[in-house]
Amino acid sequence: MTASSLPGDRQVWRIAAPMILSNVSVPLLGMVDTGVTGHLESSIYLGAVAIGATIFGFLYTGMNFLRMGTTGIAAQRFGANDNDGLRVSLGQAIIVALLIGCALLALQVPIGKLAMQLIHPEPDVEIYALEYFFIRIWSAPGTLANYVLIGWFLGLQNARVPLLIFLTINFTNIVLDLLFVIGLGMKVDGVALASVIAEYTGLLVSLSFTTRALHRRSGHWPFARLLNFRAYAAFFAVNGHLLIRTMALMFTFAFVTAQGARLGGLVLAANAVLMNLQTLTSFALDGFAHAAEALVGKAVGEKRREALERAVSASLKWSLIFALGFCVFYAVAGPPLIRLLTDLPDVRETTMRFLPWLIVSPLVSAWSFLYDGVYVGATRAREMRDIMLFSTLIIFLPAWFLLRGFGNHGLWLAFTLFMASRGVGMHIGYRRRVLPGTV
């Protein structure tokens, strides 16, 4: 094994750069959705789309285990040069994704009603939010299948195809938003329909590249393993833990929002601005986590410890460099960004008081973001779950109840301790268990 064959900066950037570009296109789509509905004659439409997007954000974030689990398993099969195993990892994940998608379609009425009971919007807004929901829910099978295919290509060290899939979905959605709402005079139904068509357009692109990729790899489809429920044990073992881990993460973010609301409307608005910028940070740093997923998974499949260490070292180095850049960026450009995002003086003033937490957040968060990718590539989902539950139940919640007398500063300190706990726990777990136990 030569030094040149080991993962390094070039291999990290070959995967990270397209994924960073892919992730950046996501908030752009959200801005267009907001823009087209925000210029209609009533704010009801904007509120309805915001509620609908929140519901699907919750549903689809919860299903992101389909992408993460597929990447880790496929990367290891790729490293082991197991072409039949690659087909099994793809086939099993697609079958599960379609079953979940069809279940969401079958249960759309109770899901929609439950969501409205929990959110409890004004009656006029609820009517249009449900209209949006009952149209967009038909994208579920396509969306979840795309999650699988994006994860599978990342496992094959191919980030260009996921980039094309993301760009196809998001830019098709943007064009159809403008056509349906501005051109044809549709309202929330046009925004929802644009999302449905965009997802299936992206799926067609995904399937065309998948067919080519499989054609280049000799092998056959082991249908017996795809039809045997027991053969899914490894798949569910990984993805079940990832689902619990994701739910704990979603709970933490929802808790921050809920507690901010209890501290008053100004604090809620300020936290929303800061969390949007926190999300921007995660979108960028996730590119390096995706690189770690693919490179670590391949190293595990090849059983090359040195390659695994080099993959983690290179990915972590660039993740921390970018995180430091975000810290400097928010320190310098934070006030102008806040003024750009809101023109309400009270909200601006309140947000500025808590800006220091956002400035330190990237360097604190970078470790957990990157190690998420490492653990996914090594398919150590149980450890991911345990560390997330520990950080949520033993660190975050007790910290908040001890610090709540400090108001929103206490809330942000609890959140920062949560992110730090995840990073420290995953780093220790990597050195003591993941690294020695995977190759």
Number of helices: 16
Radius of gyration: 22 Å
Strand content: under 5%
The tally of beta strands, per DSSP, is 0
* Count of separate structural domains: 2
- The average pLDDT score comes to 87
Mind explaining what this structure looks like?
By secondary structure, the chain is an all-alpha fold. The chain folds into 2 domains: 11-227, no CATH class; 233-439, no CATH class. Helix content is 87%, strand content 0%. The protein is built from 16 helices and no strands. It has helices at residues 9-38, 43-62, 65-79, 83-106, 108-119, 123-136, 140-155, 160-183, 188-215, 223-227, 233-262, 265-302, 305-341, 345-377, 381-403, 408-438. α3 packs antiparallel against α11 and α4 runs antiparallel to α7. The model has no long low-confidence stretch (mean pLDDT 87).
Chain-wise SSE layout:
Elements: H1 9-38, H2 43-62, H3 65-79, H4 83-106, H5 108-119, H6 123-136, H7 140-155, H8 160-183, H9 188-215, H10 223-227, H11 233-262, H12 265-302, H13 305-341, H14 345-377, H15 381-403, H16 408-438
Give a brief outline of the structure.
The protein is an all-alpha fold. The chain has helices at residues 9-38, 43-62, 65-79, 83-106, 108-119, 123-136, 140-155, 160-183, 188-215, 223-227, 233-262, 265-302, 305-341, 345-377, 381-403, 408-438.
